[in-house]
What does this fold into?
Amino acid sequence: MLVRKLMVMNENKINVIFFGNNSSVLENLIKHSDVNIKSIFCRPADRNNENIVEVKEIANKYFIPLKQPEKKDIYTYIQYIKDLNPDIIVVCGYKYIIPGEIFNIPRFRTINIHPSYLPNYRGQHVINWAIINGENETGVTIHFVDKGIDTGDIIIQKRVPILFEDNAKILHDRIYYEVCELLSQVTNIILSGNTLPAKKQDDSKASYFRPRTPEDGVVDWDKNGIEIYNLIRALVKPWPGAYSYIKGKKMIFQDVRFEPDLQNSSAGEIVNISGSKLVINVKGGKLLVNEYTIFDENENKTNLDIEVGDKFE
It folds into this structure.
């Protein structure tokens, strides 16, 4: 176990710069009586990104300066950040890699919140990948930022269960509920003048996952039914959704349940319809589809007459 010696806080509050798009974590920090948010950085404006809209609303609500630089412009904010004299930078879901010229500025350096139990599941979209891969446990880690991707020394972490009925939104909220508690522990350690743990990661046990692409959402009806169920529940709103095609139209699945069934029926075939709900045969069981959306070739929402016996492409 390594430790990084910290100076005793002379001020009453910790001066923080926040990099990221997680509004719940940001607001939790703002409401912490011993934290002073000096500035917020998030990705460039995007009206379609609910997270960014919420971060902007919070910045306006609390009169905190908000910066939204493009990747190539981050370096132009080095002096701005130095002038703010932050004690620490907190990163949570920031789109770009933060250069060393910035993450080394604060006297307590920069920490990142990563939604896995590092060194497992380094990389992007790891909440989604953990569900897709059928994991029954993940975690959350707060670690120091270094030049690698999710490779910095671990300050604190906690395991988080993944239940079979969880979707990505439920798991996301469970993880970030834990984040707020762990962040509070970190700030309390700093305020007490004690040392923050800095445990080296075991790279031999690391796994890395790439960013998810739209093609990763295609349902392969030749796969086991549980694999299909995992894919769908991993990509529910606000993620783009797992999808398949039927009668030339695209169906995005939003809410499904899996029931085991040993009958060897034709996979991808609709075997029952009740109102707007569907039952689809899959290998090893049935998918009970409670919510879905149909899109035409121009990605506009549309309606489609679906009948028992129709089969997905």
Remarks:
- Residues 8 and 193 are 4 Å apart (CA to CA).
- Helices lie at 23-31, 50-62, 78-84, 100-103, 126-132, 168-192, 225-234.
- The chain has two domains: 3-209, 214-295.
- The chain has a mean pLDDT of 93.
